[in-house]
Amino acid sequence: SFKVLKDGTVLELSAGDYIFGVVAAEMPALYHEEAIKAQAVAAYTFACYRKNSSSGGEYDITADGDTAQCFITRDEAKARWGEKADEYAKKIDACITAVAGELLCFDNQPIFAAYHAISPGKTNPCLDVWGKDIPYLKSVDSSGDIDAEGYQSEAAFTVIEITEKLKSICEPTGDAQNYFSGFSTGENGYVKQLKYCGTVVAGSQITKLLGLRSSNFTVSYSASKFVFSVKGYGHGVGMSQSGANYIA
Question: SS3 of 82, please?
Fold first, then answer.
């Protein structure tokens, strides 16, 4: 079982009910059964990893997708799925049952089973995102993501909007077309760092402050607007969910 902190309340759930809620929240129910099984194993492994790290605290894991993994109750899933609720619930329960107890381990311990929605064609090494070199979280091919819905996106901002959203970095000076420069990217295209008005900043920080779908982006400036062209969705580390669906 797992003790899950959700909306200020600690819920004690069976492993099956918890993993159901994670899969329902984290992966489209329309995905292939084999992708859902992979997601169930990753979710269970991640939860075990966090439980091992909780040291007997009030809860094992939160339902916060930014710091752990998302979770919804069966009632919330039913409301989300509408008339498809029974069909989807049966499908996900069957997938979870098929892989019950399966765990990903490294050195006989549950791994940090990271996952994300869509890669830009190659996943991100953990070192580039969280500054820690984990042997099993390297950059690997996930070229099937290129055909995924939502693979490419754009976000446009006026000069005033950029100035406001990035004011925590610095107050811009000079010509707006020179605000962004000095891009350093990995082989997979993710922006490691860049300069905003001369100040060096991590690509992930720009991504967060501007609400971009990933840190694999380029910037163009025209007609007093900045346009960010983005590939992928999420931090890019670990399993790509759309990549898993493509393979399945």
Answer: helix
